[in-house]
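Before relying on records like the one below, remember that each one covers exactly one chain. Contacts with other chains, cofactors or solvent are not represented anywhere in the record.
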Amino acid sequence: QGQLVEYGGGLVQAGGSLRLSCTASGSIVSANAIAWYRQFPGEQREFVARISREYSESYANSVIGRFTISRDVANKVVFLQMTSLKPEDTAVYYCNVPTSTDWMRPLYSWGQGTQVTVSS
């Protein structure tokens, strides 16, 4: 059973930056696309960003130009660099392997996520 673990969240002021990390066991990072998602209180998870095995990047419209996804295959980690953070970015952030036909359908169970709080 694969496992992905998110960390790096915290409290930051609006306009600030954070870098989230997603580590995974085995060959998950090298063998799959990895995506970041976020969940606002009382709402469904939403897609944030995805990086393919070929390093192609995709982003939700709301984060284009502010967030950057990257991967370090050797160290089995995927990053989400977040800049120009806004209070509306406040959420719990998760990573997972998106299925090829439905990026909102993850391949693995959800982890604990990491809380990002942006103060105004």
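The first strand starts at residue 4 and ends at 7.
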